[in-house]
Amino acid sequence: MFDGAMPAAALIPHDPDGFGVTMTATDFRSRIGEAMDTAQREPVTVTHRGRPRAVLVSAEFYERAMTAVEDIEDLAAVAASRDDTEPTVTLAELRAELGLTDVGH
């Protein structure tokens, strides 16, 4: 989980499954460089008065997360469009309504 660059007292696992590390805001301020290095490998949760206040992640992780969110939003939009109850017309019906003849079809 953590390679030991920071003393164990500064970083404490915040998840029983070992996902990421936690540090206090005071530790974060004094060890920001080490926290940024750690964030390249795993999320760093910064706490204030015992409560999570921020999570530091790598730029790569953030970009992947934002892409995933956008993909989910796109899928939701596609699903919503499929649920559209507006009446539809066939191409032949549209051509007839517009007075177009079937040239070459």
Write the layout of secondary structure elements.
Blueprint: E1 12-13, E2 21-24, H1 25-30, H2 32-39, E3 44-48, E4 51-56, H3 59-82, H4 91-98
Parallel strand pairs: 2-3
Antiparallel strand pairs: 1-2, 3-4
Shape: rod-shaped
Kindly estimate the percentage of residues that lie in beta strands according to DSSP: 15-25%
Remind me, CATH topology? YefM-like fold
Contiguous helical run count: 4
- Measured as a percent range, the helix fraction is 40-55%
In CATH, what is the homologous superfamily?
Answer: YefM-like domain
Low-confidence stretches: none
Going by helix content, strand content and strand pairing, the class is alpha+beta
Let me know the number of strands. 4
Q: How are helices and strands ordered from N to C?
A: EEHHEEHH
**Which second-level CATH architecture applies?**
3-Layer(aba) Sandwich
Explain the overall architecture.
The protein has 105 residues and is an alpha+beta fold. The protein has a single domain, classed as 3-Layer(aba) Sandwich (YefM-like fold). The chain is 44% helix and 16% strand. Strands 1-2-3-4 form a 4-stranded mixed β-sheet. Strand 1 and strand 2 (21-24) form a beta hairpin. The protein starts with 11 loop residues before the first strand and ends in a 7-residue tail after the last helix.
